[in-house]
């Protein structure tokens, strides 16, 4: 499987520094999360050129009741221009019909590029479950689903459930503690565990993925970030993922 260094694992790096970190840590792909697209995209482009790393995903389009915004357009333009495989997209609206229309609008922004919309289901968003995400993806040609074992587990979806090869774009990889937290969003953004250090059935999850599914290793952990600088952190989580395989 292809490994990618998730932006969330090294959020303390500027986006333009992520490609070099990924290359030095042994990743062929990386992801970036923009806070200011116009200011940061040129550095990311330069980093990709100099490192030889490819861009797996750009984060994150957050769809709300206002529909597609100028910021979403800037993210879509940057993802396409940088050659990202996927534009990570989530929805804050529980109305799946309205969300489907907005996802279709984002997909239209990417028409003619190699970048595809990837929907991530999370219990604390409008698209809560894998089945919801797959329903939207089926309705918008070219759209795929991003599978995260943490979110699937918290939603009660068996990690051994085979992933649809026509709908699965890529997957994330992390681990989680046994006890369900009071705040799922906080866990996802601050308390993820290194693969193999928690209770998730990751071997079953990996076996259920289509062959050659890219894996974005996403360990967004305050504790790990306090212990290790970005480069050794990136190496640690890659080695843990390789051990699982």
Automatic annotation (TrEMBL):
Q: Which GO MF terms does the UniProt record name?
A: isomerase activity
Q: Which Pfam families match?
A: AP_endonuc_2 (PF01261)
What name does UniProt use for this protein?
A: Sugar phosphate isomerase/epimerase
The residue ranges of the Xylose isomerase-like TIM barrel domain are 70-242
Stored PANTHER family: BLL3656 PROTEIN, HYDROXYPYRUVATE ISOMERASE
Q: Which UniProt keywords apply?
A: Isomerase
Does the keyword Isomerase belong to this entry?
yes
- Coiled-coil residues: none
Origin superkingdom: Bacteria
Supply the source organism for this entry: Pseudonocardia thermophila
Q: Does the keyword Isomerase apply?
A: yes
